[in-house]
Amino acid sequence: MRSYSLIAPAKINLYLEIIGDRSDGYHELAMILQSIDLADQIDIHPASTETIRVYCNHPQVPTDNSNLAYRAAALMATKFADAFKNLGGIDITIKKRIPVAAGLAGGSTNAAAVLVGIDLLWNLGLTFAELEELGATLGSDVPFCISGGTAIATGRGEQLSPLPSLDHIHIVLAKYRSLEVSTPWAYNTYRQEFGSTYIRDTANLADRANAVHSGEIVKAIVNKNAAEIAQKLHNDLERIVLPAYPQVLHLRELFATQPGVLGTMMSGSGPSVFAIVESAEQAEIVKLKIREAIPDQDLELFVTRTITHGIKIAP
Ligand code: ATP
């Protein structure tokens, strides 16, 4: 049996709106998710014994059964118990480049890669739709990470409608290595502060979420107009995270004043902040300017771009 190397891209949120409370305890969301070319590499190797093992080069990433990649493999081993028994175990090696706990779906994209990789390894022939259904049981961002590109995500974030692909929009991304924002904290605090404006579990909830389809940012995406997209970026969680984390607010303000920056926003529940920039050359200049302003090496900076795919086999 051969091994597989997969590219697992990160995502950013071009749009994140919290619509209200669902009866299952989750929030109803309206999001626009976008894959970027900042990616981890996931190697899937067959193992001789009936075990699942995870290796990772990043000290903050657990390698036990709390790792989302491990949980994805365990799910496949349970669902396809005969294959696991007959074809043996799985060794998963994660080469991490995506900042951890950053609002970039790092764990989710690793889980997505493991689902795709085991499907290939065991020759299961699952469709993307079947893999997405399995992925939704692991986390709301996993289904998007499988097919990637540009998509509207509603419900908990797992109901996807693809949008026309947005290739080669230039992005500069920044994250303080030592700064972690808990996603449950961000959502719970939002509920405490703004819950009075929520729609409670009614038919109206889904209608409001679906209104994103006819929103202005979607029109800008259809027109592939980077400047218009950058003007329409939105993230409700900024209202919680920016006041609580002055470093993130400062980054956001610094990006906004750089020449060539068309728009800037926090991704997901943060603390990553990204800027849409006019050109690849400008992106390198913006990165240099941010580095000059914040020489602290705790700040990670990346020049990246939008891409049109999710998990794919490494060349
Ligand atoms: P999301 O955008 O989906 O909310 P995130 O980018 O904020 O995710 P992750 O990088 O997925 O956050 O990490 C969240 C936590 O999950 C980390 O603190 C880490 O301990 C744990 N974790 C479990 N599995 C992984 C994995 N494969 N990669 C990264 N972190 C993982």
From TrEMBL:
<comment type="pathway">
    <text>Isoprenoid biosynthesis; isopentenyl diphosphate biosynthesis via DXP pathway; isopentenyl diphosphate from 1-deoxy-D-xylulose 5-phosphate: step 3/6.</text>
</comment>
<dbReference type="InterPro" id="IPR013750">
    <property type="entry name" value="GHMP_kinase_C_dom"/>
</dbReference>
<dbReference type="Pfam" id="PF08544">
    <property type="entry name" value="GHMP_kinases_C"/>
</dbReference>
<feature type="binding site">
    <location>
        <begin position="99"/>
        <end position="109"/>
    </location>
    <ligand>
        <name>ATP</name>
    </ligand>
</feature>
<comment type="similarity">
    <text>Belongs to the GHMP kinase family. IspE subfamily.</text>
</comment>
<dbReference type="Pfam" id="PF00288">
    <property type="entry name" value="GHMP_kinases_N"/>
</dbReference>
<dbReference type="InterPro" id="IPR014721">
    <property type="entry name" value="Ribsml_uS5_D2-typ_fold_subgr"/>
</dbReference>
<keyword id="KW-0808">Transferase</keyword>
<dbReference type="InterPro" id="IPR020568">
    <property type="entry name" value="Ribosomal_Su5_D2-typ_SF"/>
</dbReference>
<feature type="domain" description="GHMP kinase C-terminal">
    <location>
        <begin position="218"/>
        <end position="294"/>
    </location>
</feature>
<feature type="domain" description="GHMP kinase N-terminal">
    <location>
        <begin position="67"/>
        <end position="149"/>
    </location>
</feature>
<dbReference type="InterPro" id="IPR036554">
    <property type="entry name" value="GHMP_kinase_C_sf"/>
</dbReference>
<dbReference type="InterPro" id="IPR004424">
    <property type="entry name" value="IspE"/>
</dbReference>
<keyword id="KW-0547">Nucleotide-binding</keyword>
<dbReference type="InterPro" id="IPR006204">
    <property type="entry name" value="GHMP_kinase_N_dom"/>
</dbReference>
<dbReference type="GO" id="GO:0050515">
    <property type="term" value="F:4-(cytidine 5'-diphospho)-2-C-methyl-D-erythritol kinase activity"/>
</dbReference>
<keyword id="KW-0418">Kinase</keyword>
<keyword id="KW-0067">ATP-binding</keyword>
<comment type="function">
    <text>Catalyzes the phosphorylation of the position 2 hydroxy group of 4-diphosphocytidyl-2C-methyl-D-erythritol.</text>
</comment>
<feature type="active site">
    <location>
        <position position="11"/>
    </location>
</feature>
<keyword id="KW-0414">Isoprene biosynthesis</keyword>
<protein>
    <recommendedName>
        <fullName>4-diphosphocytidyl-2-C-methyl-D-erythritol kinase</fullName>
        <ecNumber>2.7.1.148</ecNumber>
    </recommendedName>
</protein>
<feature type="active site">
    <location>
        <position position="141"/>
    </location>
</feature>
